[in-house]
C-alpha cells in the first residue's frame, strides 16, 4: 500500500475522530441545565417485597430481584425525603412491560397499564411522574411493579424526587447523546435518500445507497426508541416501544441487502438466504404482534440467536474475503463491464461493518448476561451498540465519499484504457477492434448505413525507397485528411497498414459519392501543398438499407472492399502505363 492509499485511511479515521469528539463535547455536563429546587436520586433506604417476603437493600441499583415474569409483582418502599421547598414535586421512575401502582401511606394515588393489559395488548415502557404535595415529606411511599410479559425486567430504574421540570430535564440530560446521534442518523438517512435518486439514475447505477439510507434510518430510530427519546419528547408511548423492536428486527435485512448490492464480495447463496430469512421472520413477528397472537417483545431471544449466527457467518466471510484479496493483489480490470475489482471505499466499509457486528454481538451477550445472570439486572450505562452504529454509519458516509472518488478515478482510467484498446496509435483514428464493434452494432440495429473502404496507394513504394519513418508520416497525414473530410461519420478507422474504413449512418449513394469527390479534391490540394508526398487512394462503397434484413454488415463491407480493389486495379494499370511504379 503506498502513501496515497494510507492517506485515504487517515482521512477516514480523522473524520470519525472529529465526529466522536463533537458528540462528546455536546454530551458533556457543560450544557446541562442546573436544578432550580432540591433534587433527590433515591438509591438507598428501600425495602423490597417479593413473594410476601420483605428485605432491606443497600442500593436499588444492586437489588438482585431476579427475573420478573408475567404476573410477578415486586414492591419497593421508602420514606419521602424533605420536599417542603420544592414547587410541584413528584416522584418519577421507569417501567418496562409492566403495570405500576403507587401508594402513599397505603392509599393508591397512581396506577398505570392495567387497562392495556386487560385488553390483551403489550404494555408499553413508560416514564412515570407521580405528583406529590410539599406536605408529603416523611410519608411512606410504595411502588408496586407487576410484569405483564415473561422476562419483563430484572432490575429497577433510578427513582427521582424533585420538581417535575427538574426531573424531566434530568432525563433529557441523561439521554442527550442518544438524542443527538439518533436524530443525526435519521437526517443523514434523508440526505442519502435524496442522493440515491441521483446515483441510481446516473452512470453510477448504485443501488446500495438506498440500503445505506434504510440502515441509517433504522439505526437512528432504534437508538431513539431504545434510549427512550421518543417517549420522553412525545406522549406516543406505543410508538416509542414498538419502534424499538421493529427497527431492531429489520436491521439485519437492511445490512445484508446493502452488502449484497455494494459488491464487496458478499453476494453469495448463503447471504441471499439470510436476507430472505431476515425479511420473512420479522414480517411474521409484526403480523403476530398486531393480530395480538403473540407480542413482539417475545421474539427478542430468537432474534438474538439468529443475529449471533449471522454475525459469526459474516465474520468468517470477511476473513475469507481478506485472504482472497491478499492472494490476488493485482487490480483486475474488465473494459467490457467497466468494472474495477478492488476499492478502498469497500475496505473502509468492511472495517466499519466488522466493528458494528462485533459491538452488536457484544451488546447481545451483555444484555442477556445482565438480564438473566447479573445481580444488577438489565441496567445499561453506555450502549456499545450506539458506538458501533456511529462508526458503521460514518463508514457508510466514507464509503459513499471514497466510492465516488474511486468511480471518477476508474472512469478516467477506463477512458485511457479504451483509448489504448480502441485507438490506432499512429493515426489516432479508431482501430480494427472498435470498427468491428461498430459494425456489429450497426447490424443489430438493421438501419440504413453506408460503408466506405479506402486503401492508401503507393505505401510500399515509399517504405521501400524512403524508409518506414517516412511511410509513417505518409499514413499519418493521410489519416488526418480522412478525419477532416469524414468528420460526421459513425466511425473512421485504420484497420490495417494502408487500409481504412468509414461507416456513415443514413447515407445514400449520392452522399457517399459527394463525400468521396470532396475527399479526392482534398488529396489533390494536400499533394500540391506538400514537397514530400503525392497522396493517392483507392476506394469503394456499399449501401445497406433497412429492408435488406438478410444482409449483414460484414457482407456490406466485403462489397465495398471489392469495389475498392477494382479501383486499385485500375490505378495499377495507370501507374504501369505512366511508369511510376513497377509493383503496387
Automatic annotation (TrEMBL):
Gene Ontology terms describing biological process: cell adhesion involved in single-species biofilm formation; negative regulation of bacterial-type flagellum-dependent cell motility
Keywords, ordered alphabetically: Membrane, Transmembrane, Transmembrane helix
Membrane-spanning ranges: 9-28, 179-200, 207-225, 245-266, 273-290, 302-323, 344-368, 380-402
Record-level Gene Ontology MF annotations: diguanylate cyclase activity
Superkingdom of this protein's organism: Bacteria
InterPro entries to which the protein is assigned, alphabetical: Diguanylate_Cyclase (IPR050469), GGDEF_dom (IPR000160), Nucleotide_cyclase (IPR029787), Rev_trsase/Diguanyl_cyclase (IPR043128)
GO CC, one annotated term: plasma membrane
Domain GGDEF: 447-578
Classification via CDD domains: GGDEF
PANTHER family tied to this protein: DIGUANYLATE CYCLASE DGCN, REGULATORY COMPONENTS OF SENSORY TRANSDUCTION SYSTEM
Protein name: Diguanylate cyclase (GGDEF) domain-containing protein
Organism the protein comes from: Lachnospira multipara
Amino acid at each position: 500500500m503506498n502513501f496515497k492509499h494510507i492517506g485515504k485511511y487517515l482521512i477516514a479515521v480523522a473524520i470519525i475522530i472529529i465526529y466522536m469528539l463533537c458528540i462528546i463535547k455536546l454530551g458533556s455536563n457543560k450544557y446541562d441545565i442546573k436544578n432550580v429546587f432540591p433534587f433527590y436520586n433515591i438509591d438507598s433506604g428501600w425495602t423490597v417485597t417479593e413473594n410476601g417476603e420483605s428485605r432491606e437493600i443497600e442500593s436499588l441499583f444492586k437489588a438482585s430481584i431476579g427475573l420478573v415474569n408475567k404476573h410477578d409483582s415486586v414492591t419497593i418502599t421508602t420514606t419521602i425525603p424533605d420536599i417542603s421547598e420544592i414547587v410541584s414535586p413528584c416522584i418519577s421512575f421507569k417501567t418496562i412491560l409492566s403495570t405500576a401502582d403507587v401508594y402513599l401511606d397505603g392509599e393508591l394515588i397512581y396506577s398505570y397499564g392495567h387497562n392495556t393489559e386487560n385488553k390483551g395488548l403489550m404494555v408499553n415502557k413508560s416514564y412515570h411522574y407521580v405528583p406529590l404535595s410539599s406536605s408529603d415529606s416523611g410519608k411512606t411511599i410504595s411502588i408496586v411493579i407487576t410484569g405483564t410479559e415473561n422476562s419483563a425486567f430484572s432490575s429497577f430504574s433510578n427513582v427521582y424526587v424533585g420538581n417535575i421540570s427538574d426531573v424531566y430535564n434530568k432525563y433529557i440530560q441523561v439521554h442527550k447523546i442518544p438524542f443527538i446521534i439518533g436524530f443525526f442518523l435519521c437526517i443523514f438517512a434523508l440526505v442519502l435518500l435524496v442522493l440515491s435518486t441521483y446515483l441510481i439514475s446516473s452512470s453510477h447505477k448504485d443501488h446500495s445507497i438506498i440500503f445505506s439510507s434504510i440502515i441509517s434510518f433504522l439505526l437512528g430510530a432504534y437508538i431513539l426508541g431504545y434510549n427512550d427519546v421518543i417517549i420522553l419528547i412525545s406522549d406516543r408511548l406505543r410508538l416509542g416501544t414498538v419502534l424499538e423492536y421493529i427497527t431492531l428486527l429489520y436491521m439485519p435485512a437492511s445490512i445484508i441487502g446493502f452488502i449484497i448490492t455494494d459488491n464487496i464480495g458478499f453476494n453469495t447463496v448463503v447471504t441471499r438466504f439470510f436476507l430472505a430469512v431476515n425479511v420473512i421472520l420479522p414480517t411474521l413477528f409484526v403480523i403476530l404482534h398486531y393480530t395480538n397472537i403473540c407480542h413482539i417483545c417475545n421474539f427478542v431471544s430468537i432474534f438474538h440467536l439468529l443475529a449471533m449466527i449471522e454475525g459469526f457467518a459474516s465474520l468468517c466471510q470477511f476473513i475469507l474475503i481478506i485472504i482472497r484479496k491478499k492472494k490476488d493483489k493485482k487490480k483486475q480490470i474488465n473494459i467490457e463491464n467497466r468494472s474495477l475489482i478492488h476499492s478502498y471505499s469497500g475496505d473502509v466499509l468492511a472495517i466499519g461493518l466488522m466493528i458494528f457486528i462485533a459491538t452488536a454481538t457484544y451488546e447481545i451477550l451483555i444484555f442477556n448476561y445482565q438480564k438473566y445472570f447479573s445481580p444488577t439486572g438489565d441496567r445499561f450505562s453506555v450502549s456499545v451498540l450506539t458506538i458501533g452504529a456511529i462508526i458503521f454509519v460514518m463508514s457508510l458516509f466514507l464509503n459513499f465519499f471514497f466510492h465516488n472518488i474511486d468511480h471518477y478515478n476508474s472512469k478516467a482510467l477506463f477512458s485511457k484504457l479504451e483509448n489504448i484498446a480502441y485507438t490506432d496509435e499512429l493515426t489516432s483514428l479508431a482501430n480494427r477492434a472498435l470498427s468491428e464493434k461498430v459494425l456489429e452494432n450497426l447490424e443489430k440495429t438493421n438501419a440504413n448505413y453506408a460503408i466506405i473502404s479506402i486503401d492508401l496507394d503507393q505505401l510500399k513504394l515509399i517504405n521501400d525507397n524512403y524508409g518506414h519513418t517516412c511511410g509513417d508520416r505518409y499514413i499519418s497525414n493521410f489519416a488526418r485528411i480522412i478525419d477532416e473530410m469524414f468528420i460526421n461519420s459513425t466511425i473512421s478507422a485504420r484497420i490495417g497498414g494502408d487500409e481504412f474504413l468509414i461507416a456513415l449512418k443514413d447515407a445514400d449513394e449520392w452522399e457517399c459519392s459527394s463525400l468521396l469527390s470532396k475527399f479526392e479534391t482534398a488529396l489533390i490540394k494536400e499533394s500540391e501543398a506538400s514537397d514530400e508526398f503525392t497522396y493517392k487512394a483507392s476506394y469503394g462503397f456499399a449501401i445497406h438499407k433497412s429492408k435488406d434484413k438478410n444482409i449483414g454488415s460484414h457482407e456490406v463491407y466485403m462489397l465495398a472492399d471489392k469495389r475498392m480493389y477494382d479501383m486499385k486495379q485500375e490505378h495499377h494499370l495507370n501507374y504501369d502505363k505512366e511508369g511510376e511504379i513497377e509493383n503496387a
